[in-house]
Design a protein that fits this description.
Length: about 375
């Protein structure tokens, strides 16, 4: 939440309005005469409505507010902070110990290890942490998080280029409940060794972004396919070394896969496409076994094979026919084939329907 400039005058105006609404008028029983008299539930309600800068300012109003915010604040984003984010985190982490969601995404790298260590030392309930573009951070941050925040289910370290695969592997051994992990651009971190650790430790993983981690090979992806059966979103765009074996392993091991990015994976051939198309048939058998999971089981809903230049139209058409949620039509565009000049003949069902509708109209006019 990023608001405009909020001064204490604005807070006072809010308070006066609130006084009229709650305690004001002749009927007002327990009159609220000062900020500190606000009931805690009401205060937390207000805090949940204002932007993060105002929350930090409200923290300075009085002891009562400070305690209430310390106990009640669970979500915070400091992404609006263009300067001094590091100092701000150092000063806030010991106060906001109940944080569950913390967004520290930056435009220019400001965060240093001491700030992340402070978060890890004080915010043990943290579930969702966004550190993207913090390329000043070192392994020290990941080790601190592993020790202090074992409940993490969502971690975004995209663009944090200095982490080693050893530190990430260590974190996965402790944060075994990870469901969403973004390693986009972390070529040094997301090695096959790290992916093996993820496959071994994080069986609940649902979403993994490995975009432009160009050291990843089939070995790493196959570990994921075996160890993370619940994987739904996998971005392998720019993982130039992977081959059909990766896609075949995913098609066989991850029946819930909804989104797969293979942009620029130029070793991918028709074999990979046919394995995906056939996985739909296998998936259908699974569906009958579990009535509950049958709802919303759509199969692949997004597939990016742009710049996969070895693919031919029949194989890609087979995938498109197997998964009704894949579209090449404008507006829906969930099967992305741009850059593959040989694939211009591949079309989703909409194109055929439009064609038939056109023919029906023409036949009608002929009569
Ligand atoms: Zn369509």
């Amino acid at each position: 939440m990023v608001g405009g400039k909020v001064g204490t005058e604005d807070l006072d105006v809010c308070f006066r309005n609130l006084g009229v609404a709650v305690g004001g008028g002749e009927m007002g029983g327990g009159a609220i005469v000062d900020w500190k008299d606000l009931p805690m539930e009401l205060l937390m309600r207000i805090i949940s409505l204002v932007d993060d800068r105002t929350v930090i300012m409200a923290f300075g109003v009085c002891t009562g507010w400070r305690e209430a915010i310390s106990l009640g604040l669970t979500h915070l984003s400091l992404s609006w902070c263009n300067d001094n984010m590091n100092n701000l985190v150092l000063s806030l982490a010991p106060k906001f110990t109940k944080l569950q969601i913390l967004t520290l995404r930056q435009n220019k790298a400001q965060l240093e290890d001491d700030a992340v260590v402070a978060v890890a030392n004080h915010c043990h309930d943290l579930r969702d942490l966004d550190l993207s573009k913090s390329f000043k951070l070192s392994d020290c941050s990941l080790y601190a998080l592993a020790h202090g925040c074992p409940c993490l289910t969502e971690l975004n370290i995209s663009g944090c280029s200095a982490f080693s695969d050893t530190a990430l592997a260590y974190l996965t051994r402790v944060c075994m409940n990870l469901k969403i992990l973004n390693l986009c651009g972390c070529a040094r971190t997301a090695t096959d060794r790290a992916l093996q650790a993820i496959g071994y430790n994080c069986s609940q993983l649902q979403s993994l972004n490995l975009g432009w981690c160009d050291g990843v090979t089939d070995k790493g992806v196959m570990s994921l396919a075996h160890g993370c059966p619940d994987l739904r979103v996998l971005n392998l765009c720019g993982c130039v070394l992977i081959t059909d074996e990766s896609v075949i392993a995913l098609a066989n091991g991850c029946h819930r896969l909804r989104s797969l990015g293979l942009y620029y994976c130029q070793n991918i051939t028709d074999r990979a496409m046919y394995s995906l198309a056939n996985s739909r048939v296998k998936g259908k058998h699974d569906l009958w076994k579990s009535v509950i999971s049958s709802y919303g089981e759509e199969g692949l809903m997004n597939l990016n094979i742009s710049q996969c230049t070895a693919l031919t139209p029949p194989a890609v058409q087979a995938v498109c026919d197997s998964f009704p949620a894949l579209h090449t039509c404008p507006g829906r565009h969930s099967l992305i084939i741009s850059g593959c000049l040989s694939l211009t003949s591949v079309h989703c069902a909409c194109a055929f329907q439009a064609h038939h509708a056109g023919r029906r109209v023409m036949t009608h006019h002929a009569h």
